[in-house]
Each structure stands twice: as C-alpha cells, then as structure tokens.
C-alpha cells in the first residue's frame, strides 16, 4: 500500500512548524524533510489512543528512526466518556538523529473529542498541525468540558493549522458493508486516524496490517473492518485537499546492530530473566498487582520456558515474603511494586538485610504520597528506599536511566544482590515503565556471569577439631556471608531477624557484638562501591563550571537540555548516577570540580539532600512534581539563568 | 515406620542412616520459661521427625514472632525465624520452589490469627505444602500477657483491665472456613495423641493446620486444664476417629447426633437410637460436618472439645505441585527458553 515517493525536488514553503526542514515534492503532494517530529494522540480512555500510539511507534522504529514515547493516561479504566478526567494521550518523538526525550511540545495534535482538545491544546505551539475529529464536537460534548461555543467555529484556534475531519462518520461510511454494529464500526476510528497519520508522516503500513491480523485472528469480521478503516484513513490522506504536504523523517544514524523497540517494564522483565540465566538461579517473582508495576508480573508469568515462577500473593507483604523464602531456598527472589507497596514491604526488607540473602525489590515509582497519582511518574521514593526501615538497615540502590537501560540495570541489581547477599532496590518509574525507545540488542557473550557461589562445606573448625558451618563467617573481600541452601548436608543452620553473633550466627544480645554487626552490615554495602565504575562526566569543552547531576529517568531531558545549552554557547557538564547507594567512589571529587552543581529531580530534592548531607557541598536542587517528565526547555532555562548569574558575578 | 507410609514425601530424599530424636536437637540452650508447654511440643516433634525417614538437611522450619517462634533455633534442620505473622508467606516461597523439602511452620495464636491472619488463610486456601503447627495458649506471652484473638471474651489482662471485648477466633473453624485440606487439633500434654496427629499431617499432601492447645504457665496458666485433669478430661474431650461413631465421655455415655434442624447435638447415648449417632468421616469433601464439630465446644468451660483430625481430604492438589507442573508442562511442550530469541522478539531491524 505504501509507495515511497522517489521523485523529489526542492520547493519552498512558509510558516512550517518544523524548523530546519528541507522540502521536496512530487506530482501529487509535496514531501517535506524534517529532522524530528513529535506527535500526540489524545482521546477518550476508550478511544484506543495507547494502541494507536504503540502502532505508530512500531512503524517509526521499523524505519530506523530514533524515538521515545510518553504515554499519559488516567488511573480510571474508563472515566465518564467525553470528560477531562477521561482523556488519555500518547506522545512520541521520532527523529533522524539521536534523541533523548519524547519532546516538550507536539508538532501535531490529534484530538478525538473536545475534552482531548481542551486538555492538550495548551501544549501545542502556535503554527502546529491540529487534527480534530469533528463528529465528536456536539453541543453536549462541548458542554461537558465547559466550551460555551465550539472552538472550531470561533477564532480561538486560529494560531494553529486546524484540520477538521469527520473521523467517526468517515470510518462508519468506510465500513458500511461489514457485518458489524455501528458501535463496532465507530470503535475503528482510531485505526482510521492511524492510517491518516502514517500517510502524513510517510511511514510503512505492513506492520500494522499484520498486527491487526494477529490481534483479531479470532474475529475475522472485526479484523477486516479494522484493516479497512486503517486503509481508508491512509487513502483519505492521499486524496484529500486538506493536507498539501507529507513529511518525511530519515532514519537516524545509530550504531550498527540489531534493534527492537522496548518499554521499560519489558526491558526490566527481560533483564531479570537474563540475570536468572546468567546466574543459573531460578527466577521467582512474588508480587501483588499495582500500577505501574503489574506489567512485569504479567510479562514474567509468560516465561515459564525459562523456569520462571510467578506467585501472585494475597498482599504486598506476602509477595516479598515468598520471594525472600525462595531466595533462602536458593532461587533469585524478586518482588515488584510501586511506592505504596514498598511501604508495606519495609519490614521484610529489613529481615532480608538481617538474613543477608539476595533479593531484588523493584519499585516502579509513581506520584505520592499514599495512593497519589497511580499512573503518573515521580522520583519520590529515593529516601524511602534509602531509609524506610527500622534500625540501621542499608540497602543498595540501582536506578535505570532510560526504558532500554532497565535491562542492564536489572542485571546489575542481580549481580549486587547475589554477590553481596543483600536485598537491592531497583528504582524505575512510571515514565520508564511505559515509555519506549529503540534498543540495540546486546551480544549475549558480553553479559556478566553471576556466580551464586553456594556454600557446600563447613567453614569453621572448633577448638576440638570438629568442623562446623558458620552462616555469618564472611568473605574477607566482599564481606558477604556464605549462602548455604536447604538440602546441603552438614550445613543445617538457623537464621532470623534477631541480632546474631559475628561468625556463628547464634542469637546474641551482646552490646559490643551488636555495634560490630551494625557496622559490618554497613561496611558490606559500602564495599560494593569497589565494583562500581567511576561516575563519568560528559563535558565536551572540558571547561564547564556547571554540572547537571541527575539519576533515573531524568537522563533524557537533562541530556537534551545540556546539548541545547551547549549549542547556545554555554559550557555545561552532565553526569548521571546509576548507583544511588553506595555512590561511585569518585562522586565527591566530581562534585568538587564544578562551581555549581544542579540536581534536577522529580521530587522535592531527595538526592540533593543525600549529597549535601554526605559531602557538605552546596548543591542546588531543581524540582518538579507534576507527574510528568521534565521538559528539556525548562532545564535549558535553568542552565541559562544560572550561567548568566555566574557570568554576571565574574 | 517406613517412609512408604508417607507417599506425600516421595519427592524428598531419604536418609541413609536411621536418625534419632537427639539428631534433631541443636546445641542452643532452650530459653522458654520452665514449665512451658512448648518443651513438650518440641520433644514430641523431635521424637517424630525420624519417623519420616527424611534427610534432615531437607527439612525446614519457619516461624514468625512469639514464644513459639523460637522453635526453629532448637531444631537441627534448616530454619528461619522470620517476622511477625509472615511465616506462611515465607514458607510458601520455600515450598513452591523446592518440592524436595519438607516445610514446617511454627506459629502461635497471635502470630497466626492476629497479625498474620491473612497469610494463614491464603496459605490454607492455596493448599501450599506446609505443615503448620499453631501453638494456642490464648494469650500473648512474649509481650507479657495481653489478650489474644483466641482469648475468651471478658478476659482480664494488662491491656484489658475491664475485660476484653473481642469475640474469640476458633482456629479450627477459621481453617475449615478457608477450606484447608487438613485440619487437626491436639494437646501439648498428650504426646501420644500429638504424635499421631503429626504423623497424619506428614502423610498429607498440601497444607496441614494443627492447632496445639499449649499451656502458658506464666500468663495464662491452666487455660486447658479441663482437657488435662484426669477426672474430667474424658468427659470434655471428643476424640475424633475416622469411620467410628462419635461417642465420648468417661464411660462412653455421650454421643453426637444431628437434630431435626440438621444441627449437631451432644446427647446421652442412652437417649438416642444408635443408628442416629454420627459416624465421623474425616475424608468428606464437604467440610460441613467438620465445621459443625468445631463449633460444638463451649469456649469458657471447654466442654465438648473435639481433638484429632477434623478433616483430611485429597481432592485439591497442592499449590506448589501445580506450580511446578505448569513450568514442567510448558518446557515439555515448547522446549526450554532461548534468551537470544526472547530478546529479539518478533519485530527487529538492523543497522549496518
């Protein structure tokens, strides 16, 4: 169905929303070359916007564009139709170059109803394309969201290139010969919109047709109707006078390799399976469903071929309890949750600290406190992960920086957990979980091997010459204790949450022993820093006086902001922490190299507090808790302003 | 007894040498109060362990918090002394991943029914292969004498100077309500009976809940006395034996019948037609009779207290067996997973 436009010639147009574009054209429509496009699909929760966005993403990925996505949906499964709380959107950026964010502002907004228009129009820059489904702009729907008059009929949208299209009725018309209900036909309007957008951005269509064939394999009539709606949307683009140009985004020059598109939750699931394979340990997930972490439970439950066992527990506490039990018995125990779940698991995490057993605790952070914003992103569990337990209870923390990076971060968390016999936090967030990007598939040979190094023989000789197993006799290098699993003859031992005597592990209430054990557990976690790579700083000029230091999912917006600032002549350095506990050994030295250290976080300054407390350095927090990732433009403003202040001070 | 008596333990490696009770004793000093009922239970369990014929490294004891939960420290097997109420959850992870282990949970009335009530009922509902020993002394011992969820209403304790207001849980009723596949009750002072019940529990595949009436001689001494004193004991105890009519009393003069409303009634044998006496069936799928029996007793006077195996049914497969089977079936059908093809998925592109 898709024909590549071969004949291209330069033409000139005015007022394009795409800066730096080149335009070409052929006999029918112009084809404009642009380097980057940001599209936002917005509609009702029931309009299938997430699916539409996913499909567009796949087609863009297949074309070799670099891309990033930002789904944004309400916590309610189906809020009342046509209302502002029910608006669901999916934004994606695709480009002919390496990009790190899903874009601050869309170039094109597809609004499936007045609510979607009202909720999103504020983000649309002047001059952008606005595609509106006119069928939904009834008096009633307008009133639902407080429009006194239709914005399509007054002048309120004159700053945009409005494309009023009767998406619903054209879809129904296209499907009139199918043996389906009117409602079913209307529901296919998202495919019509997808077809139109794929035409507009010159994307292939075969993948979507194939996808629809598979998705509706058991409902042939629905399958054919959806394909027909999709093709009708594409054809409409080709024939309508509404769109005079098509846009094209060339493939991005990316390192050679095989790529796929992947979300953070999927990459994290695969990372856990890879860690299981690399360690030879059975992967056991004990979990309780919670947004936005449930997809990891769903995903892992599909992979029994890898021996993966998943246990949907009665509550968060039982989820981690079973995972810890599995670890005790010699599996790689994992629990997955979000912030509220961590609060419930805290006591068991403390037990894992005391038992010194491997355990991976995945926290896909969301807006808090309490139930907070279940479907929105935040980085506000860092201090909970650090300190949210009774007693001196250190737990290592690893945080991925992008959706695909969740794969490597999961393996790293497993390496630390197994090597050091400790629970480890893996701090993802809602943006990483549901966002996606192209992932260059790793060479399996390069994945680290994780050695469980189970104890098999006694490790202590008594005065009388008899051999014994001491469960808290530590490895002098790592300070890790031996992991002897049930079924190992002669190593029967008892461990628990009571303080134990150093070495023998017997219950001990001795004052000096407790002081010693508290310090030992801390020293063990601190020693992990010896195996963490030094923090690298990206400072192309080598002369930057400002360092932007981030962690987790802010990597993308910070990276984009630094690049933009450098293009404007500002010398700024970027560094990003993957290990939050312990920090890389050179962190203090890095911080002291710069006059100003800015720490942007989607919280009220949690990493910033840790840095100031640990190093007595006057780092500067930039904080936002809107449930959405930073816009690179706001970070550019921060950098620009700081730079001006510093230059002014000189 | 040979291990063939325990087909439920078929996946667990057998000991090549004959173990003795003393092989299950650790070098740790037992720290319960002198006179505590826990000593008798420990001795009975250590005495029973060799009967299973298992390698002791394949036995795991998991406990929560409370006096009873110190139990694992005194068993020379693998053991975890965990946190309050969570032992069934932790033991579920052990049992589900390791079918070659015999997993025992030791808990108390507070640990199992108060803070850990949720985990207990769900472990029983799932029928995880756990043998749960619930020491019921109707008081909080380790925190020094507050009322527990099995304390009789009106109990005067440190936290209830005017008497407790809570209605008590009956652990056997709770377990039957959760549709546990094996439910039994025994008494700390009756080692022979306790050993019989342990034997039946070990032979059961799936969850087994054993309520053990245990005396706390410090904070609730004599709580079970009507079931222990020689003179009155047999008048109060209904000894349940599968396949036998339910007759009890010092002179076997009392029995259980179903009245015209279908309710269970304790009657004098002399007053009923012998064919009306209920023949006890521990293997009935319907837990109705077992539940009715669990409601017969008077929680204050302890008259009409049944002991023995209330229910032992096999129609529900154990959770851990099914979980292992699902994995085995998928691997048998589709072959073991290949990481490379997993990561590649169905939709890749190459850049050269």
Task: Give a structural overview.
The complex is a heterodimer of chains A (650) and B (352). Chain A has 20 helices and 26 strands. By secondary structure, chain A is α/β, with parallel strands linked by helices. Chain A is globular, with a radius of gyration of 27 Å. By secondary structure, chain B is of the alpha/beta class. Chain B is 27% helix and 18% strand. In chain B, β5, α6 and β6 form a beta-alpha-beta unit. In chain B, α1 packs across α6, α2 packs parallel to α9 and α3 packs across α4. The radius of gyration of chain B is 22 Å and the shape is globular. Chains A and B meet through α1, β10, α9, α11 and α12 of A and β1, β2, α2, α4 and α9 of B. β20 of chain A pairs parallel with β2 of chain B.
The overall pLDDT average of chain B reads 96
Strand order of the largest sheet of chain A: 12-11-13-14-16-15-24
Which runs of chain A of at least 5 residues are low in confidence (pLDDT < 50)? 1-17, 23-27
User: How many helices of chain B does DSSP assign?
Assistant: 10
Fraction of residues in helix of chain A: 25-40%
The amount of beta strand of chain A, in percent, is: 15-25%
Output the helix-strand order of chain B.
HEEHEHHEHEHEHEEEEHEHHE
Structure annotation, total helices of chain A: 20
Global structural class of chain A: alpha/beta
Biggest protein-protein contact in the assembly:
A-B, 69 and 59 residues
Instruction: Tell me the distance between the termini of chain B.
Output: 70 Å
Structural class of chain B: alpha/beta
From the spread of the alpha carbons, the general shape of chain B counts as globular
Number of beta-strand segments of chain A: 26
Oligomeric state of the chains in view = heterodimer
Calculate the mean pLDDT score of chain A and round it: 93
Strand order of the largest sheet of chain B: 2-1-3-4-6-5-11-7
In total, the number of strands of chain B is 12
Q: Given the C-alpha coordinates, what overall shape of chain A results?
A: globular
User: How far is it from the N-terminal to the C-terminal residue of chain A, by CA?
Assistant: 62 Å
